[in-house]
Write a structure and sequence with these properties.
Strand order of the largest sheet: 3-12-15-14-13-16
Number of domains: 4
Radius of gyration: 46 Å
CATH class of the largest domain: Mainly Beta
Largest sheet: 6 strands, antiparallel, barrel
Low-confidence stretches: 1-9, 15-34, 372-377
Number of helices: 4
């Protein structure tokens, strides 16, 4: 009997211990549930809006007028006297052809002219005799007319021979290629020993004067260009040099290979601009709206609506804000509505955010958030 009572007391004590453990476990779970989760976040401060959507294209500085010079006759090149980058002026010899065949043509034309002049002299003497005999009624009128006709034919043949000689002499002169304008040689297309047809380019000369930037614009952006539109040109070799240019010419059709349109932008006269310099042309869209630039990772979506998560500086909580996306920039996404300069936006981990969630900003992030940001560029923490 005593032994059975002791066993019952032992069982009762184990039950109390089990109930106590269950109660402690329940208290721990309730305490864990009531603890507030504070998540550290990375934020950016919204800067001042930019000027609107801008497009940039790389190109090269070229002369407005480039002349591809070639011989007016065919032949074998014996000399090319200029190289790329060399400055030339009117009258400078650029290249020469072998003139032997054309000099022989000159000699042949000279001989034909001499023969024609002799024929003129002979026909003139015959015409004089026919006139004298006609006055004495020795010959008929038809004989005089034939003499006059023969003399006129001889004069015409002499004039033709004289023109042939001038043409032959011109061909000899055409074997020497000379510059017509003052400028710089930008390309050479022939070497000594090469046989060329008439008109084949030999030397390309960029004429001194107005300079332009040649760029290639894709068809998606060509509608933003029109003759006379003002653009901004910067130069890789001189970061401090920025000039206002004007669209002068737009190609009427796209290139068959690149499918881009050639656009020429005229530049003001500046001694620092040299041919071949790399230039960057910046164009602002006609319908450009000022926008805030945010990192792409700051953008999320709720109910098919783009949103960003704003951080309340006072309560250290986050709240979703619907925004209007205008497009994408090289450094992020462009937002036109829904945020304002100075707002703190969660820049990463937006998939873990929920309404009124407590977040933690580091001292560095708080300090950066209090500093002004550069217009158009978000300040990241």
């Amino acid at each position: 009997m005593l032994i059975r009572g002791l066993a019952n007391w032992k069982s009762f004590g184990q039950g109390l211990a089990l109930v106590g453990l269950v109660g402690l476990a329940g208290c721990s779970e309730q305490k864990a549930e009531t603890e507030t989760v504070i998540r550290p976040v990375k934020v950016v401060e919204v800067a001042q809006p930019d000027e609107g959507r801008r497009m940039q294209y790389s190109g090269a500085v070229r002369a407005r007028t480039e002349i591809a010079m070639g011989f007016r006759v065919d032949g074998k090149v014996t000399q090319r006297l200029v190289d790329v980058g060399q400055r030339v002026k009117p009258g400078d010899v650029l290249a020469r052809l072998d003139p032997v065949d054309y000099e022989l043509s000159v000699r042949q034309a000279e001989a034909q002219l001499a023969s024609a002049e002799k024929q003129v002299e002979i026909s003139h003497l015959a015409l004089n005799r026919a006139q004298v005999l006609q006055e004495k009624n020795v010959t008929s009128q038809s004989t005089l007319e034939q003499s006059q006709l023969a003399h006129e034919q001889a004069v015409a043949s002499r004039d033709a021979a004289r023109s042939a000689l001038e043409q032959a002499q011109n061909r000899v002169a055409y074997t020497v290629l000379t510059a017509d304008v003052e400028g710089i040689v930008t390309a050479t297309s022939a070497e000594a020993g090469q046989v060329l047809a008439a008109g084949t380019p030999v030397v390309t000369v960029a004429r001194d004067g107005a300079k332009e930037v040649a760029i290639a614009v894709p068809e998606s952006d060509i509608a933003e260009f029109r003759p006379g539109k003002l653009v901004r040109a910067g130069f890789w070799s001189n970061r401090d040099l920025s000039l206002e240019g004007k669209v002068r010419e737009i190609a009427g059709s796209a290139d068959s290979q690149s499918r881009t349109f050639a656009v020429r932008v005229s530049l003001p006269d500046d001694p620092n601009i040299r041919l071949g310099m790399t230039a960057t042309v910046t164009v602002r869209a006609d319908d450009a709206r000022p926008a805030y630039v945010l990192p792409l990772s700051a953008l999320s979506r709720q109910s098919d609506q783009p949103v960003v998560w704003l951080v309340d500086r006072q309560t250290q909580t986050v709240h979703p804000r619907a925004v209007t996306v205008a497009g994408f920039a090289g450094d992020g996404v462009r937002v036109t509505d829904g945020i304002a300069a100075g707002d703190l936006v969660v820049a990463a981990g937006t998939q873990f955010m929920r309404e009124d969630m407590k977040v933690r900003l580091s001292d560095r992030e708080v300090q950066n958030a209090e500093e002004p940001a550069v217009a158009g560029l978000p300040k990241q923490s």
